[in-house]
Amino acid sequence: MFFLLATLAVAAAVGMLVSRSPVASALWLVLNLFCVAGLYLTLNASFIGVIQILVYAGAIMVLFLFVIMLLNLSALPQLEDIQWTQVAAFAVGVVILAQLLYVTALGLDVPIEPVSAETAAEVGDARLLGKELFTRYALHVEVAAILLLAATVGAVMLAQRRFD
Amino acid sequence: MEVALNWYLALGAVLFSIGTLGVLFKRNAIVVLMSVELMLNAVNLTLVAFSQSMGDPDGQLLVFFSIAVAAAEAAVGLAIVIAIFRSKVTVDINEINLFKH
Known about the structure:
The complex is a heterodimer of chains A (164) and B (101). By secondary structure, chain A is mostly helical. Chain A has a domain at 125-164. Chain A has helices spanning 2-18, 22-42, 46-71, 84-106, 117-123, 126-135, 138-160. Chain A is globular, with a radius of gyration of 20 Å. Chain B is mainly α and 101 residues long. Chain B has a single domain (5-88), classed as Helix Hairpins, CATH 1.10.287.3510. In chain B, helix 1 packs antiparallel against helix 2. Chain B is elongated, with a radius of gyration of 17 Å. The chains are: A mainly alpha (164), B mainly alpha (101). The interface between A and B is large, with 81 and 72 residues.
């Protein structure tokens, strides 16, 4: 199940990268987000999986698609020749991937005792996470709420005002 | 957990790199923002994989807040794109050079 979802997630990400139309990119990204939500479920993290579908695949991607439709975007014209910045960008991406995979392949010196599936399901459950959120992390929740309010007000202000 | 932790970390690394390539390659500002979401998503996957393999809920709470911040970032980013589109009528990031001159 992991390898099916992982392959699909990588394929969707590559599809987002290579598709020229922004709408197609957005739909590929939705597929990728659904696959990652499925991966959260294979990790027994049910709460985060549901939040991923609701917030990311639901709210954020609908916002993106609305803006694409609102601006009536079509694909940008293709550049004629390959520029040196694109070569540099590709090199940077490959180097970052190589570094990350190298660190992963080294293995971790931090001893991690794998927990049982029952414990993992308990940790990923909404009951425990909710209890933690509203006791130890209550202040953080308030700060996140203020951040979201500020972002909402700021987004409305920015989208309204005309730059003279 | 059925699959070893390292596979999740490797998948997170691959998704993060694809997101980086998207940020560097794409000229459409909205697609660049979507690539940033992909990078955030890859990091979230890594956090959840660590959190579940260690049996510690703190990683998932961090992901919860990270999703909240990603939502705020997407809203403000798209509002900026709309504001720039109103004045320049383009979303090509090569054409947007308000601070250059």
